[in-house]
């Protein structure tokens, strides 16, 4: 009986993780819809735009200021940051909730993002600050096993483009 209970718990945990990956994939692709809009404003090249598909990879390097400018522009596009360049908690939570099952992660992600933002509030240049915060968010999501896999992200992207 204990083995069955342990197996059931393991399957439930695996389903929750898989569900989180799907939600994060949807949020990432939704957020990414503003990328083309922000490409010119941020000075992002076509090559750098393609790198966005790898943003959840542990090996992805958050080093180009233009990437920070693009992330900032994308956040502004969805009204996720205030004029003072700070997280707009309610708008961010509502943005995440707008995706299927997003309510499961919305509060956790807002806290995670806010904590990352606090770590870099001393960085005055907006694009570099956003770049550091973005890296922190990626690392926190990876450590919590929330980040979508590259395979899932690509599959979701292909499904969206074919729809």
Automatic annotation (TrEMBL):
<keyword id="KW-0813">Transport</keyword>
<dbReference type="InterPro" id="IPR006072">
    <property type="entry name" value="Odorant/phero-bd_Lep"/>
</dbReference>
<feature type="disulfide bond">
    <location>
        <begin position="116"/>
        <end position="136"/>
    </location>
</feature>
<feature type="signal peptide">
    <location>
        <begin position="1"/>
        <end position="19"/>
    </location>
</feature>
<keyword id="KW-1015">Disulfide bond</keyword>
<protein>
    <submittedName>
        <fullName>General odorant binding protein 1</fullName>
    </submittedName>
</protein>
<dbReference type="GO" id="GO:0005549">
    <property type="term" value="F:odorant binding"/>
</dbReference>
<dbReference type="InterPro" id="IPR006170">
    <property type="entry name" value="PBP/GOBP"/>
</dbReference>
<keyword id="KW-0732">Signal</keyword>
<dbReference type="Pfam" id="PF01395">
    <property type="entry name" value="PBP_GOBP"/>
</dbReference>
<feature type="disulfide bond">
    <location>
        <begin position="38"/>
        <end position="73"/>
    </location>
</feature>
<comment type="similarity">
    <text>Belongs to the PBP/GOBP family.</text>
</comment>
<dbReference type="InterPro" id="IPR036728">
    <property type="entry name" value="PBP_GOBP_sf"/>
</dbReference>
<feature type="disulfide bond">
    <location>
        <begin position="69"/>
        <end position="127"/>
    </location>
</feature>
């Amino acid at each position: 009986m204990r083995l069955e209970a342990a197996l059931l718990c393991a399957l439930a945990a695996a389903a929750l993780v898989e569900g989180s990956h799907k939600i994060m994939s949807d949020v990432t692709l939704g957020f990414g819809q503003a990328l083309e809009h922000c490409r010119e404003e941020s000075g992002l090249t076509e090559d750098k735009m393609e790198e966005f598909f790898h943003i959840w990879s542990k090996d992805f390097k958050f080093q180009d200021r233009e990437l920070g400018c693009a992330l900032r522009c994308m956040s502004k596009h969805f009204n996720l940051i205030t004029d003072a360049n700070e997280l707009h908690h309610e708008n961010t939570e509502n943005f995440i909730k707008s995706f299927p099952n997003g309510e499961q992660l919305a509060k956790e992600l807002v806290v995670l993002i806010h904590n990352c933002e606090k770590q870099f509030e001393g960085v005055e240049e907006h694009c570099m600050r956003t770049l550091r915060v973005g890296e922190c968010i990626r690392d926190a999501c990876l450590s919590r096993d929330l980040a979508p896999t590259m395979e899932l992200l690509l599959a979701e992207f292909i499904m969206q483009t074919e729809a």
